[in-house]
Design brief:
CATH class of the largest domain: Mainly Beta
Strand order of the largest sheet: 3-2-1-5-8
CATH topology of the largest domain: Immunoglobulin-like
Helix content: 25-40%
CATH superfamily of the largest domain: Cupredoxins -  blue copper proteins
Largest sheet: 5 strands, mixed
CATH architecture of the largest domain: Sandwich
Order of helices and strands: HHHEEEHEEEEEEEHH
Strand content: 15-25%
Distance between the termini: 68 Å
Bound molecules: copper (II) ion
């Protein structure tokens, strides 16, 4: 019994260190936001509990099979409903254990993670509106008056196997979203047509962009860098061709970027979209930027 239990613990320890050594290659991407850290923590905690339970129950079962085998004179019981106190105990104890596990051990950390995820307003310093559209993303900084579309730049020839695939195949865009590091950004998301979903794995956030609704999420990215994600709600035939690319830069650099891209006229007076770079129509053959640019 003890040997089996030890073997179980050993296997768990091996799996744990292997995951750490793999440096997230087979695990979550390196987390860069509080939500991503929390998600990874909750995942690891639940995984440890689930593995402990799995090996514990398995060891107990194997031990029971072996200990009460027929060849040593044991006879199978044939009751259908609990009758004695002992039988009631063995029926109710797992039920109680499940309740405690589900609501206490799993429920409480999960509740805190979800509560944290939903708190997009507290101390948010920047608002970014993300609009999904067949098949590109439109980004808007309402206070700064900046608005542009972000389209995939992977050439058709690569998709059709006429050219070797590039390093960021299907994960590259003309105008990436630019965000400051260490600032809580509140995202508001919606869609122009069908349901899309904005997702950057390293941020630990994914939220459906639903036409007619404004939905929220947030991110406070601690490390500058380029982060890539994808639309993760099947939205039509080009669903796989509307990636998300986010350039996270230090605060000062972001301020300079805003100053450079801020429209000269007040945003209210200008109905025309202001692109970080002019919207390129030729980049993706099938993109329809005009439609998006004209959208409110
Ligand atoms: Cu989509």
């Amino acid at each position: 019994m003890r040997g089996l239990f030890r073997a179980g613990l050993g296997a768990m320890a091996a799996m744990g260190s292997a995951a750490a050594l793999a440096d997230y290659k087979y695990n979550f991407p390196t987390p860069v936001t509080p939500i991503a850290h929390e998600t990874l923590h909750v995942h690891n905690l639940f995984m440890a509990i689930a593995l402990t339970l799995f090996f514990g129950v398995l060891a107990l079962m194997l031990y029971s099979f072996w200990k009460h085998r027929k060849s040593t004179g044991h006879k199978a019981a044939d009751f259908v409903a609990p009758k004695s106190t002992k039988q009631w105990m063995w029926t109710l104890a797992p039920f109680a254990a499940l309740l405690i596990l589900d609501y206490g051990v799993f429920g409480i950390p999960a509740y805190h993670a979800v509560k944290m995820y939903e708190d997009s307003k507290t101390a948010a310093e920047l608002v970014v509106k993300v609009t999904g559209s067949q098949w590109m993303w439109q980004y808007e900084y309402p206070s700064e008056g900046i608005k542009f579309t972000s389209q995939m730049t992977t050439p058709r020839a690569q998709i059709n196997n006429q050219e070797p695939k590039g390093e960021h195949y299907l994960l590259e865009v003309d105008n990436p979203l630019v965000l400051p590091a260490g600032v809580k950004v509140r995202f508001i998301t919606t869609s122009n047509d069908v349901i899309h979903s904005w997702w950057v794995p390293a941020f630990g956030v994914k939220r459906d962009a639903v036409p007619g609704f404004l939905r929220e999420f947030w991110a406070n990215i601690d490390t500058p860098g380029t982060y890539r994600g994808q639309c993760s709600e099947l939205c039509g035939k080009e669903h796989g061709f509307m990636p998300v690319v986010v350039n996270v830069v230090p605060k000062e650099e972001f301020a300079a970027w805003v100053a450079k891209n801020k429209p000269a006229v007040s945003p209210a007076a200008s109905a025309a979209p202001v692109a970080a770079e002019p919207v390129k129509t030729s980049a993706v053959e099938l993109a329809k930027p005009v439609k998006v640019a004209a959208a409110k």
